[in-house]
Specification:
The chain has helices at about 15-20, 40-50, 75-90, 130-145, 160-170, 170-185, 190-200, 230-240, 265-270, 270-295, 300-355, 360-380, 390-435, and strands at about 1-5, 5-10, 30-35, 60-65, 95-100, 110-115, 205, 210-215, 220. The protein is an alpha+beta fold.
Length: about 450
């Protein structure tokens, strides 16, 4: 599975929405959904929201594509995943149209959403942070559905040009890293390292961060951008003989970690050093597992199975409560949006109905008439007739927001506990297969054997 960056839509919103809703691509429009608008009138509704915007920005909307491995997911499941992603990333604040295309060898989703929020009328800011948040959310949702994700490689964050330069041996960053690694063992302190870099021809610049520029290089390179091992604190630590940040072992949490399958681990088969490390690491993880069993009073497989089932049930229960709260928030939010449109356009619509020449009136106010009638239909669908007071709606939304935040926290804790017991269960079953090498706790008569 992969997610592209969100592309800005500047002047062809109607054309973009028509393209993603193409019946030939969406199984006769069966794989078309929307939120806060309808696919047929989305461009008009986007524009109406933008009219009230505090910060309109330059874009009318944004276009995101989510693609899946060929044959890995059905179009219907891909569509459901796309809706989960859209709801979570956009938080119920932006109108959007989601479609799933099935006209190629791989199923993929198209999501077009308004560049302005209908809740607070603020502009959506797309940047690296928002992009990576979308990627993380998409990956997590896909994992929950048992789908594959792209695992970032060691070249994460490098541009194609920089990657190619490193491959060709012409990268300034690669050469600077190499020079530092070569000079560092003979240095007494950071200042000594910098003096040696200068003797190698590097020009240095001091400021909040130290930067270096090689002969012929156009721009300075901050040392901290070379990686965690090249920040000033890391270099000072390395000169003092301490391990570099990238090699420092992670602190153990006391929670059980999944045992490494050494026999089927390719890296362990290729590297004797890694195999030795994995063997020792497995002893530590086995000890953590046994300590956890003892501390939590688990002395039999039956008890462990009950704990696993209880953790899974707790997660499912909280997830259901959270989804209920989110659905109610979604209903109230949409009610507030459409009610505001209805109230604002009602006087004009009354004029239209009283007009003697309705066709002429419609030609001058077609968009507003469409918006009013769409708002009226949605309010009826949402069961918001007669119109609820705006103040009451706001109070209910605020109350639900507090509840949702509490449930989200509870859900994360429940997921963590479920993963914990799942890891424990897998480890115990592996250890039982090697029971001749492991002594399990025997606090009860029906011990884990």
């Amino acid at each position: 599975m992969a997610v592209t960056k969100t592309h800005p839509i500047k002047s062809t919103l109607k054309a973009a929405i028509d393209y993603i809703c193409n019946p030939d691509k969406t199984d006769g429009k069966l794989l078309v959904s929307s939120f806060g608008c309808t696919a047929e009138t989305a461009d008009i509704e986007f524009a109406w929201t933008r009219r009230h915007a505090i910060d309109k920005g330059m874009n009318l909307g944004r276009h995101l594509i989510q693609a899946f491995e060929p044959g890995e997911v059905t179009p219907e499941e891909a569509h459901r995943i796309g809706m989960e992603l859209a709801r979570e990333v956009l938080g119920g604040k932006y109108e959007f149209v989601l479609t799933t295309h099935i006209d190629r060898d791989h199923v993929h989703n198209h999501l077009i959403f308004n560049a302005v929020s209908f809740q607070d009328h603020r502009h959506y800011h797309s940047n690296k942070r928002s992009y990576h948040e979308i990627r993380r959310t998409s990956d997590r949702i896909c994992k929950e559905h048992g789908l594959s994700v792209i695992v970032p490689g060691q070249d994460k964050g490098k541009s194609y040009i920089e990657h190619q330069a490193e491959q060709n041996g012409t990268s300034y960053k690669a050469k600077l890293r190499s020079a530092i690694d070569r000079l560092l063992p003979g240095c007494t302190d950071l200042e000594d390292l910098l003096r040696r870099l200068q003797r190698e021809g590097y020009e240095l610049k001091r400021g909040k961060y130290i930067s270096a520029r090689a002969p012929g290089q156009e721009r300075f390179t901050r040392l901290k951008t070379l990686g965690a091992d090249y920040a000033e604190e890391a270099l000072t630590s390395r000169i003092a003989g301490k391990p570099s940040p990238s090699r420092q072992p992670k602190q153990r949490t006391g929670r059980p970690s999944l045992l490494i399958d050494i026999q089927n681990n390719i890296k362990a088969q290729q590297s004797a050093g890694y195999k030795h490390w994995a063997t020792i690491e497995n002893l530590k993880r086995a000890a953590e597992t046994l300590n956890f069993l003892t501390e939590h009073g688990i002395g039999s497989l039956e008890e462990l199975s009950e704990r696993c089932d209880g953790a899974a049930a707790a997660t499912a229960r909280v997830k259901a409560d959270l989804r209920t709260a989110e659905k109610e928030m979604e209903r109230l939010t949409l009610t507030m949006k459409h009610a505001a449109t209805y109230r604002q356009l009602r006087p004009m619509y009354d004029q239209y109905r009283q007009s003697r020449d309705k066709e002429k009136f419609l030609r001058g106010h077609e968009s507003e008439i469409i918006l009013f009638e769409a708002a009226a239909r949605e309010l009826k669908r949402l069961g918001a007739v007669p119109l609820p007071a705006a103040q009451r709606l706001r109070a209910e939304i605020d109350e639900l927001t507090v509840r949702r935040t509490a449930l989200q926290s509870e859900y994360r804790k429940a997921q963590q506990k479920e993963r914990e017991y799942d890891t424990l269960n897998q480890n115990v079953r592996i250890l039982l297969e090697r029971s001749e090498d492991v002594v399990l706790p025997k606090e009860k008569s029906n011990e884990l054997e």
